[in-house]
């Protein structure tokens, strides 16, 4: 009964007021971007990797601002669950940072990317099992909608597909430092949610 339906990656019709559907869709987009980085090379690989870095940064920031505060307050053993997820995120960020300093054509790049992919996938499975199922079961409609608002604000900061010839502010921001992207995402999430962090009730 706790099975979570996974929206198709890139499905713009995922339920807009269901934070779990939105986050599961992002997990699908992340998997697709890993595939794209692996199968391309040269400028295509560099572009796909920049989009992957950006989506990972935005996704993790949204979870830190939206999912983890709710989990701490409302899940059984929430504090421990969140600390475990944060430890996984820190490890992934270290690998991501090392990759970010490498050229995507470096022979060492792909093995490190595969290491990152393994860590990110394990982290996503843990989120789905220990956080998402409990959120869907325990959050009321208002809390789900409030959290979804924050995730959508974050998602707007991370285009997952290239738009040739279009110089949007969001596309230009993809070239900025990851830390700056995370800061802007955090501000956008907090503004969208009225700084309530998905508080239940």
Automatic annotation (TrEMBL):
Signal sequence segment: none
Which Gene3D superfamilies does the record match to this protein?
nmb1532 protein domain like
Pfam families reported in the protein's UniProt record:
Hemerythrin (PF01814)
Q: What InterPro entries does the database record attribute to this sequence?
A: Hemerythrin-like (IPR012312)
Give the Hemerythrin-like domain ranges.
Answer: 19-132
Q: What is this protein called?
A: Hemerythrin
Q: Which organism is it from?
A: Streptomyces kanasensis
Its taxonomic placement starts with: Bacteria, Bacillati, Actinomycetota, Actinomycetes, Kitasatosporales
